[in-house]
Amino acid sequence: MGINIHTIKDIRSFLTSELDKTYQEPEKSSLINIVIKSVTGVSRLHQLYDPTRKISKSQTGRITDICRELKTGKPVQYILGETEFYGLRIKLNVDTLIPRPETEELVNLIISENTNFTGNITDFGTGSGCIAIALAANIPGAVVTGVDISLKATEQARENAKLNGVKVNFIAGDILNTNTNLPGHAGIVVSNPPYVRESEKTSMKRNVLDYEPHKALFVPDSDPLLFYRAIVKTAGNILLPGGRIYFEINEAMGPQMKDLLGSAGYTDISLVKDINNKDRIIKGKRHV
Fold first, then answer.
1. Terminal CA-CA length for the chain
2. What SS3 state is found at 140?
């Protein structure tokens, strides 16, 4: 493998051939673009303009190593140890989920509705810190705290905040444990907690099931709103009157989530559909 890889064009041809049986378009092309940019530093646009650009032997070796792992089904984000989220560079480890485009939609909604916000934002289940960091980077008046049960996740999140030049306070805490010490007087609470029901595993891709942390993904069928109830309860202690709450949700749980927020006294409750026209976000305002 890799003997005839000397240019960016060669990389593309090599990966196209090697990954043909493992991935279908457009995923394969997207993976190839990501790998080339990561290894060579050459953007997609410059790859097209300068396909004969020479690459080094070490880069050739890295390409073949990445290809070998990709053929096992391992997500490229874990192979490279990082991904891009809302224009930010986010490093990942085995304790952090790969951020999804739907979560970028959640972040974009919060930013668009709170551009001039000043005050505290708390992000529950912060993982890699992608939501908290994106909000801190784009809402200058925000003081952001990210909470996660995993110490390794919060360590990674701190590194990501530093990498992107933003200040976020990350703390280890279990949202199901009401004794978790949290900063009060939040104007915004946000969370993308585990929401995939155990019964939905059968419809998920193997690369997700085999590599991503299950504790950050799955909830029991018998209690799919487990984390949402706990967060709403905690928000009752830290969210200011008139403060806003935002959740990414399971597309099948929209009505139940509206009932949950309504019973907790929230107003202006609305479901927001994602780019695939699925109920993906719910938001509400705490009663004054």
1. 65
2. coil
| Domain residue extents for the chain | 8-72, 94-286
**Which tokens belong to 110?**
């919060």
Rounded Cα distance, 217 and 84, in Å: 20
Which contiguous run of DSSP H or E holds residue 219? strand 218-219
pLDDT at 2: 41
CA distances from 61 to 8, 39, 41, 90, 265 (A): 13, 10, 15, 24, 58
Question: What pTM was estimated for this model as a whole?
Answer: 0.91
Predicted local distance difference test score (pLDDT) of residue 180: 62
Least Cα distance to 110 among 84, 88, 132, 87 occurs for 132
Q: What's 94-286's CATH class?
A: alpha beta
pLDDT means per 10 residues in the chain (288 residues)? Answer: 77 94 89 92 85 92 95 94 94 92 97 96 96 98 95 96 97 79 87 92 84 88 94 93 97 97 97 96 93
Do residues 139 and 120 touch, judged by C-beta distance below 8 A?
Answer: no
Residue 17 backbone phi and psi in degrees, to 5: -70, -45
Spatial distance between the Cα atoms of 47 and 26, rounded to a whole number of angstroms: 17
Peptide bond into 75 cis (omega under 30): no
For position 94, what pLDDT does the model report?
A: 86
Separation between Cα atoms, residue 226 and residue 85, nearest integer Å: 27
